[in-house]
Amino acid sequence: MDAVQILNESSDLLDSTVARLEGADWLRSTPAEGWTVADQIGHLTWTDEISLQALTDPVAFQRLAEEVASAADAGFVDRGAHELAALPAADLLARWRRARRELSEGLLAADPGGKIPWFGPPMRPITMATARTMETWAHSLDVFDTFGIEFPETSALWAVARIGVRTRDFAFRLRSLAAPGDVRVELDMPGGERFEDGPEDAPDRVVGSGWGFAAVVTQRRNLADVDLAAVGDGASTWMGVAQAFAGAPTAGPAPGERLA
């Protein structure tokens, strides 16, 4: 299954849930402090629209990126999400559907080897699709947790696992910490498959469920609350600071703080 197809399936799963909500449900607070269900969808909509702009109008996107950098404005993403969340639910849902459809089409048509500008380093289309899947997965879990719905294991776990591994050193740099040496990651994935990364003889290891790893690296669960084990000081420290998404360093939930 390709990266764009996984992104589409992840979005469709969340869509099928929020499309059934009544008006008041959109204003329900989610486990993300200060964020309603509408804010969650507003954030995905805003980011999909900006990703589409980066893909289709890189000059305009570059102007935006330069304005943000010169203003040192760390809150522009959240403001965009909250502004969109103020739309009527039906309008917000329609706008998100349009944005993600156009982004999907654009990613499929893009040169696979080309680079798309971003607020950080430029990325290839497959990387952008994988990053969007990670974020969609994380915000979907917020929504599912809000209503006490079990969040299933899906192919999106592969995307989140890849991003989670790739952002290991990034998470340490954010906190001005030295990254550990090699860490072996072995995860049980949907369909009985295995995700493996890192040298087989690495002394530090992260072993367990792909779902648990995804929830930890997106800071939606504490390591103590999922089927995941960190062996060795380096692996344990990593699981305490893991952050698969960009932005300022943030902390995940404490043990027992966030359970389905």
Give an overview in words.
By secondary structure, the protein is α+β, with helices and mostly antiparallel strands. Helices cover 53% and strands 8% of the residues. The protein has ten helices and four strands, in the order H-H-H-H-H-H-H-H-E-E-E-H-E-H. The protein has helices spanning 3-18, 37-56, 58-71, 76-85, 89-109, 125-146, 156-166, 168-174, 210-217, 233-241; strands at residues 183-188, 194-197, 204-209, 228-231. Strands 2-1-3-4 form a four-stranded mixed sheet. A hairpin with a 5-residue loop joins strand 1 (183-188) and strand 2 (194-197). Helix 1 packs parallel to helix 6 (125-146), helix 2 (37-56) packs across helix 3 (58-71) and helix 6 (125-146) packs across helix 7. The protein is globular. The model has no long low-confidence stretch (mean pLDDT 94).
Question: Any chance you could write out the topology, listing elements then pairs?
Answer:
Elements: H1 3-18, H2 37-56, H3 58-71, H4 76-85, H5 89-109, H6 125-146, H7 156-166, H8 168-174, E1 183-188, E2 194-197, E3 204-209, H9 210-217, E4 228-231, H10 233-241
Parallel strand pairs: 1-3
Antiparallel strand pairs: 1-2, 3-4
Helix and strand pattern: HHHHHHHHEEEHEH
* Unreliable spans: none
What is the residue-mean pLDDT, rounded to a whole number? 94
This entry's quaternary arrangement is single chain
Largest sheet: 4 strands, mixed
Entry summary:
With 260 residues, this protein is an alpha+beta fold. The protein is 53% helix and 8% strand.
